[in-house]
Design goal:
Blueprint: E1 8-9, E2 12-13, E3 18-19, E4 22-32, E5 35-44, E6 54-60, E7 66-73, E8 84-90, E9 100-105, E10 124-134, E11 137-146, E12 153-162, E13 168-175, E14 184-192, E15 202-211, E16 214-215, E17 219-225, E18 227-228
Parallel strand pairs: 10-18
Antiparallel strand pairs: 1-4, 2-3, 4-5, 5-8, 6-7, 6-9, 10-11, 11-14, 12-13, 12-15, 15-16, 15-17
Length: 254
Amino acid sequence: MKRFIPLALLAAIGLAAIAATCTVQNISLTTIGEHDTFAGELHNDSGVDILNHKIQVSFLNDNLAVLEVRTINGCLRSLQDGKVNFFSLQSNQDEDDTDIGLARMANVIEDPTFKVGNVAQGNVSFSGVTAVRTGGSLVVSGTLTNDDGDALEDPAVCAVVYDDDDRVVVVGRDALTDLAIDEDGAFSITLAVPDNSDLVETVDLWADGIENNVPTEPESSVNNAIAVQPTNTGTPTATATSTPLPTETPTPGS
């Protein structure tokens, strides 16, 4: 049985050493292909807005031995107070070896680019969103429009796939070219997913960009239904498994 343990997160911020408390929630450890993917949401309850930040993810075996530790970017650029970012990471280990996933915000030593500050306002909208799963492949596409009065640099769209228990299964991202005022940009995100409708229930879309060297506040299109395109192989496909555990229990010694 797969297990995972979320961590309460603490980071020292800047010269004032402000305690930025964040929690990892709605997590899953899911077998996709021959490897496990650990995914979840990073909630910011610190009282401050965070711009640059990274997330450290670890995979352990059933004996609590650490097999792999990697530091990754969240799917969104920023993480305001009271808001959420999203992450997923596939282990390089065989799925039979990984039994536990851990995640926390990287500290200032692990991530020297860590930065707090205010985001730019921005204004984007989604249209023509489609999400189609064929076996173990999910394609999410649509159009992003810059409705703001300023050009949007380096826009990106983040897709967050949820199971029927509202846990994050996997996350993907597509970077677009700069969008002028009122300009549209097409996006398409292809994700490897479990061949199981219970584990691939809905997809949320989030978008952000850069204005005057500052990340824009992310905007969203949530609870998009996923259509299933039948495969023609006639061969049953083994489904992935994902096991929920309590999502806000700190790990001793973390």
